[in-house]
Amino acid sequence: MLLCVIHGPVAQLVARFVRNEEVTGSIPVRSTLSSEAGEMRILRLIARLSLGIALVYAGIGHLTFSRIEFQAQVPVWLPLDPDFVVFASGIVEILLGIGIASAGALVPWAGLAAALFFIAIFPGNINQYVEGISAFGLDTDEARFTRLFFQPILVAWALWSTGAIRYVREILRSRNT
Length: 177
Fold this sequence. Notes:
Layout: H1 8-18, H2 38-63, H3 67-72, H4 82-101, H5 106-120, H6 122-131, H7 141-148, H8 150-162, H9 164-176
């Protein structure tokens, strides 16, 4: 059903992904969850690619057009230069985004790393709320407080869209047998 709106090479890649085939001569888009139904695979692929693109975009923002606003979110108690923290986290976000948007065995590990990254940067969001720092349009306590509830959603998004939890379980299960 979703394939009706996608044409050309993209439709071929999505169709191969749904059938869980490797794409010879190009980037493999094989799902790490081979038992999953076709429509769920497409949904997971869209969610994964969207997260990967969002991370790369945010990482570029850390390095360029939103650098000052990101510096405002670095907790004051962190004993590091805020510009260094923003620069380093931008590089990490770009790498995580590329890993999540790639294919193969790297994807679930990138998803797990992204989830841990989202947990690691959560104190910055708490600091923004506690200190009343306005950035990214979050200029009220209510907006900053509401933002805190989106971090667990990002963690779940990274783990679900990449199949990280299932992949790690399968590895652990195979090692025990």
